[in-house]
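G., the chain you wanted modeled:
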Amino acid sequence: MSEFDKIIGYADIKDELIRFCDVLKNFKEYKRMGVEIPSGILLYGEPGIGKTILAKSFIKESKIKSFTIRKDKHSREFVNHIRDIFNEAKKEECAIVFLDDIDKFANEDEYHKDAEEYVVVQSCIDDCKGSNVFVLATANNIYCLPNSLMRAGRFDKVIQMTCPGGDDAKKIIEHFLRKKQILGDIDIDDISSFMEGHSCAELEMVINEAGIYAVFDKRAKIEQRDITKACMRLIFDAPESVEYIDSNILKKVAVHESGHAVISEILEPGSVNLISICGYSNNSGGITSVRKPEDYNFNVVAQEHEIIRSLGGKAATEIIYGTFDLGCEGDLHKAFDLVTTFVDNYCAYGFDAFERGNSSQYLLESKDRKVDKEMDRYYRKSKQIIAENRGFFDAMVQELLKEKTLTKKQIKSIRDSVVIRDWKKVVMM
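Predicted structure as tokens:
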């Protein structure tokens, strides 16, 4: 079994690493073909996604001598340590120098790109040309690194690693659950939906926390509710309980979040991963987690849906209470930003509001008028969708107040139990 087979997901990245590995293992054959040994690879992405694990698997799979450099010394001592390690590596027939968390070698900000640590690393890499030294590096933030270090010739490949999603997230959760005692009715698809987009470390932490809840309650096996509770606490920073909150306030939160969720489910069935009235610790109220299409940045319809969905909390509050929503500021900023982008950058509603370096008063007023007009149009549609689907909306509010948190499976059950009005018949006026 390959070392890479032990790692779940990242198929495309592993394929690239396997090719580089083969070059190092069989460098003599590649040299006979006139192929130069690659200089190195840099893996980057947020903490906890498995960069170091993947790098270590690469080293093991290559089966050649390796040297690891990580910042664990004072600056002067560390600079000398870097030079010493590279000098040792050059003595080998073929070797890997592993720079673990290279963005931590100096102060972790863009103002220290000329730090001596990076200058020395660059110099050492350049001195290794022709010596069969391969540089493998990881970083959380590549924007802290000097451009000169990132150029071709020092790293042949700069590969971004992202949080696992889809089947990868599901497989990782299954992997962690296999080590635990669980009830057989746990729905992996349901769990992976609201944990998608989070790092491997976070997924492992949630599953472990679920085990703590189960044992503390004197139960022999982990249940679905334990995982949901752990996710709410660790991922969404929600409080353990909302029983102390006034029931009227909880209902307003439920109305607001149900507005978002119902509109999302009408426009894109199955898009809501989780909805909760157990708000963040910063008192933002509730949570509606929505999965966006993979092509969201290039999908006009999906972005229009995002505008309508963002306005759903305000629309629901106005419909139910006949007053404005005090918790919609962030939603409005999101909607206005998207509509402004449509009006200005994309000229979606005409060319007369496009800024071409000309910020005349007329132009600015024209743009504002267009934005206001489109916002009103999207807001009317938000209200129409909720009004036309009151059965779904009322059922969502009622169940949310009862359960406090609803997952994808529970939301689907509610949606399937009511009559849904075809949103395409809701005319944009």
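The domain at 166-234 is CATH 1.10.8.60 (Helicase, Ruva Protein; domain 3).

Shout if anything looks off.
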